[in-house]
Design a protein that fits this description.
Number of domains of chain A: 2
Radius of gyration of chain B: 53 Å
Low-confidence stretches of chain B: none
Helix content of chain A: over 70%
Strand content of chain A: under 5%
Helix content of chain B: 40-55%
Low-confidence stretches of chain A: none
Number of strands of chain B: 0
Largest sheet of chain A: none
Largest interface: A-B, 62 and 31 residues
Oligomer: heterodimer
Strand content of chain B: under 5%
Number of helices of chain A: 7
Mean pLDDT of chain A: 88
Largest sheet of chain B: none
Mean pLDDT of chain B: 83
Structural class of chain B: mainly alpha
Shape of chain A: elongated
Chain lengths: 257, 121
Amino acid sequence: MRSWIKLIVFLIIFFSATTSAKADSRSDYDFQLATYRQNYIEFSLYKADYLQNPTLDNQQRAILSAKQTIQARELAKAAYARYLISSIAVQNSGYSALDPIVIRLTNASTYFEEQARVSQQIITADDLKRYALNYLNSYVIHQRSLYYGQIANKIATLVRFQINTQDEMQAMVPRLSTPYSAPLQARLDGIPTLVSQINDKINKVTSVIIPEDESGLIIQANFFELYSSSLEEIKNMQLKLVDQLRDIDLNYGQAKI
Amino acid sequence: MDKQKFEITNPEAIKLISDVKSGQIFAPVINFLKKYRWHITSVLVLVSFLIAITVGKYLSGSRNQPYTAPVISGPTPTVTPSPRSSFDSLKKALVDFSTVMPEPAIPPVDEQISLEPVLSE
């Protein structure tokens, strides 16, 4: 009995901690993004001043503002990566195919945090130029990880639906009146096939999230559009499955009126 | 037994009776009516007119009241409780699930923050 109580307390703490982590990373992301936007406006003004009147004073002001803006930008990206990681974790899908993407997100978060730290070492205009060049050569792969994370987050939710559906189905079976009638048996026989089709589709979509060729930038809207139709297809298949199970539950189970 | 006979002997009473019989006693009233006959007629017509207005107004007021239809209870719709299934909440969550661009999205940021002039500036 005590072990049950311990387990329940552990689960409550675990889920509240995960949810809290998600909320924290989201608010952190919002804060860093707002800071970046504010800093970027200031930087644009200082840069314009410097380009119009390139004095040493104006240059220093512009460099200082650039450092703050870069730091906020990188911290916003790191927070976004953490937000995606916690969003995927909160689904508790246990879907191992998403692990590589979670690892990529973790690496991206570390990379962006490191960039935020490195950016604070910029002192001269040459430092800033060198930093910008190095960044452009290295950030793409980590930026791509954020886009992969968006798809993985959606997949994790769909996997959670799949798990919940199967749990509900297991709970429904004892409610069905036995012996099974021929129409009920026919309906039940069709369920595993549909479940298998959905699982296959999820596996197929997940397997191509990280492409072989990762060179080049991603345009967010275009990239997500590639997966939207597949996600919609999985969703519709799951709706079909749930409708069939609901129909069985209402017609053959002991549904509550 | 002899029938007793009453005889009026009072001269004032005799005069009053004779005045009534001759109609002389009503002469002042008749003279008054003759003298003010148009006035009296006018007052009567006016009073009749006022009474007619009052009665008409009363009848008119009672007829112009807004008509309120009697309350007739209509047919009560039969409420059939929709059957509930443990899959309902799952279905709702699935329907609400969006497959479009996630929120929050990755914001567009300037990846090339430097002091170099760019063409757009």
